[in-house]
Amino acid sequence: xxxxxxxxxxxxxxxxxQTMIAxxxxxxxxxxxxxxxxxxEQRKVDRELDGLRKSLAVELRQLIPSALAAYTSLxxxxxxxxxxxxxxxxxxxxxxxxxxxxxxxxxxxxSLERDAMDVLTIYGLIETARExxxxxxKSQAPDDVSPAVVLQAxxxxxxxxxYASIVLPKLRTGVAAHDDRDAELIETxxxxxxxxxx
Length: 198
Description:
Blueprint: H1 10-78, H2 87-92, H3 100-105, H4 116-139, H5 147-167, H6 176-179, H7 182-196
């Protein structure tokens, strides 16, 4: 039995192979759909990561000057000899707002990859400084905090600022007006650090 197919026209050929052509077309369409969907999702992830990075950059540019101000206030307080230092004075000299962006996105910090450790270190140092001030309020005689303890608390705030001076140039806000002020802040931090050095 001879099973040779003879196609006299292109339509005969297409008619015979239509199932295979439809299957190949569906496969190509599925591949294109998957690739487009993955590209859209990747762009979404990239936008979210960029937004997180910029939000943290803005928040740090608010927290670091506050931490520097706390360092300055505590240093001035620790060097004062006009009378006893109270825990209320220590707490009033070191007010820093709670970091909202970091706290609500801490589970996503790892997605910053190479910058994740730097961000964690800065926020960790700020939280250590804040916790130290809280502990001073609990563990010291409320009306007689040692100047050495106050200066030690100040040093932790400065350590956070010093570390941030290295990281801030890597975390950009995307707004030139904000980023351009970094040089002045970093110079102030370095001056404070060199003032501590013997």
